[in-house]
Amino acid sequence: MVMGEKYLSVIIPAFNEEKRISRSVSLLKAYLNTLDIYYEIIVVDDGSYDGTSKIVKEISLREPEVRLVRNEKNTGKGFAVKHGMEEAYGRYRIFTDADLSTPAEEIGKAMELLQSGFDVVIGSRRVKGADIRNPQPFVRKLFSEAFHIVRRMFLLRDIKDTQCGFKGFTSQAAKEVFGRLTIFGFVFDVETLVIAKALGLKIKEMPVTWIDDTRSKLTPTKHLRSVARELLTIRKNLREGRYKS
């Protein structure tokens, strides 16, 4: 396979994922092999201090479709996704969480929508047709609801779910959006969609199956102040027209 033949790039941002990255990559490969397309899986190790990079490197020696990209220090999920998008060769580029809370089978649905003319496809747990099989713990669900309400007061009122860790882009949309990204923490998803809308890109919210992983390391309640600050920064950037420049 040569670089120009790659049709789909799947990006996995990873931080200390040695316990589940091998299984996740295997599940992705098993599904992608059924699609009969050229693809690559890019694992972006965001400064892990466990064996994540070693495991992915060993897999890549056996499986040429798998590629390791490493950030020397932990910079945030948004930066890891941006780095993966910039390293990708695919005509279509999808990022998904390392725990595969959104199963690999959703990739085919996203591909169909991207092929039909949408520039950005986002997984959603809040639109009709979504299948939530393992709800989040109460505290995380409470924060999620509060964030959802506050976010819609300030930004993206027409989008129901900005935080699902499954989003797809055409190669051109990925370059336009991630080339303008400035937020690398929890709220980076919001900024990507604000940028996409500011650029007039066609966005589709797609219902997905969601299986919450109870081992998730995300603790957004510890960062309430920074979340609020980042939302305000995005709103300010939007009003000043920075995302169009």
Give the secondary structure arrangement, pairings included.
Elements lengths: L7 E7 L6 H12 L6 E8 L5 H11 L3 E6 L5 H11 L4 E5 L9 H10 L4 E5 L6 E4 L3 H17 L11 E5 H8 L9 H11 L4 E5 L1 E3 L12 H16 L6
Parallel strand pairs: 1-2, 1-4, 2-3, 5-8, 6-9
Antiparallel strand pairs: 4-7, 5-7
Helix pairs in contact: 6-7
What does this structure look like?
With 245 residues, the protein is α/β, with parallel strands linked by helices. It has a single domain, classed as Spore Coat Polysaccharide Biosynthesis Protein SpsA, Chain A (Alpha-Beta Complex), CATH 3.90.550.10. The chain has eight helices and nine strands. The chain has helices at 21-32, 52-62, 77-87, 106-115, 138-154, 171-178, 188-198, 224-239, and strands at residues 8-14, 39-46, 66-71, 92-96, 120-124, 131-134, 166-170, 203-207, 209-211. Helix 6 (171-178) packs across helix 7 (188-198). The chain is globular, with a radius of gyration of 17 Å.
